[in-house]
Give the backbone structure.
Amino acid sequence: MDVQVDSTLDCSGMACPMPILKTKKAVDALQVGQVLKMIATDPGSVSDVESWAAKTGHTLLGHEKDGAKFVFFIKRAK
Amino acid sequence: MSEAKRLAIISWHGTLDAAYPPLILATAAVAMDMDAAIFFTFYGLEILKKGNADKLQVAPIANPAMPQPVPGIPVPNILGVLPGMTAVATGMMNGWMKKANVAKVSELLALAQESSVRLIACQMSMDVMGIKKEDLIDGVEIGGAATFLQFASQDAIALSF
């Protein structure tokens, strides 16, 4: 995805609920408008990151699949 | 309908399998900007006992959902009454959790405390079961039904495990 990334978080190998817990911390550490790139291998993270973003109000710019990895781009919205 | 802002959970089973959902859901709720509280009552207090979180067990007897030790070779559920079978089942479950990289119960407890999940130990259960405050991990609140209900009565999802 063609987007400027300000911070990267690798949650490879982690199971639920760790990717969401780590993502929350990482997004809180960003400035509003900055983007986190989060990498996960848990297939459940696709649905979970979407739901997390919908609930918290942060923006999931998109996600892509890179082999066995799922890569998410999340913008801190507030 | 207003959106739930709180997750209120009753944890009343002290088994390994029953310890996970409350802690996973409560920590996830906080990560989703909700407040969370877990009310530990009766055997649920085992989860809060000092040094006990990673010693919880799961019983194979009367648990037909337990997968077979050797896939394809059914083991009659009644064999669960044999001495040592609870330890076998517990070892199996801990093995699957480790293989799937799931955090240990003690780790989830620490994460819950770190993220300000309210851990409320039921005073009445403590009295009934002879459990003292110093038997429990630090940072636990002691309270009763009203403490939990007051939290659960405002914009909350309430669950029991």
Summary: The first strand of chain B starts at residue 6 and ends at 11. The interface with chain A takes residues 24-25, 27-28, 30-34, 100-103, 111, 115 of chain B (CB under 8 Å). Strands of chain B lie at 6-11, 35-40, 118-122, 141-143, 156-160.
